[in-house]
Amino acid sequence: MPAGIGADLTCSACSSGRLAPDRVRSAFWDGERLVVVEDIPALVCNTCGEQYLDDQAALQLDLMKGRGFPKDKAVREITVPVFAYSGEDT
């Protein structure tokens, strides 16, 4: 995360956007299972969309992953379509 938490943070990815607090989601692979974590606090660039997590959010995600994302802790489930890459534009 960029240094100097404050109201005027510039994105280090695009160097022009401003960062603002938001809630984001991220997907993780747990073996063959795809899991999504929602409502993660982050700073998000208003220009390029780059997301920066603070240390606490990153640690919490690591702990969730280390516990294997227990199915009984999921708040909901979604269906995800899977496509096979064919190398052709179809």
Task: Give the helix level as a range of percent.
Answer: 10-25%
SSE pattern? EEEH
Low-confidence runs: 1-6
Give me the count of strands. Answer: 3
Give the integer mean of the pLDDT values: 90
Overall body shape: flat
Radius of gyration: 17 Å
Classification by helices and strands:
alpha+beta
Number of helices: 1
Q: Strand order within the widest sheet?
A: 1-2-3
First-last Cα distance: 40 Å
Strand content: 25-35%
Largest sheet: 3 strands, antiparallel
Model description:
With 90 residues, this protein is α+β, with helices and mostly antiparallel strands. The termini are far apart. The protein is flat and about 40 Å long. The longest helix has 12 residues, at 55-66. The protein is built from one helix and three strands; from the N terminus they run βββα. It has a domain at 19-67. Residues 1-6 have low confidence and may be disordered. Strands 1-2-3 form a three-stranded antiparallel β-sheet, with helices on one face. A hairpin with a 2-residue loop joins strand 1 and strand 2 (33-45). The chain is 13% helix and 30% strand.
Briefly summarize what is shown.
With 90 residues, the protein is of the alpha+beta class. It is built from one helix and three strands; from the N terminus they run βββα.
Please write out the topology:
Elements lengths: L18 E12 L2 E13 L5 E2 L2 H12 L24
Antiparallel strand pairs: 1-2, 2-3
Keywords:
single chain; disordered N terminus; 90 residues; alpha+beta; three-stranded antiparallel β-sheet; 1 helix
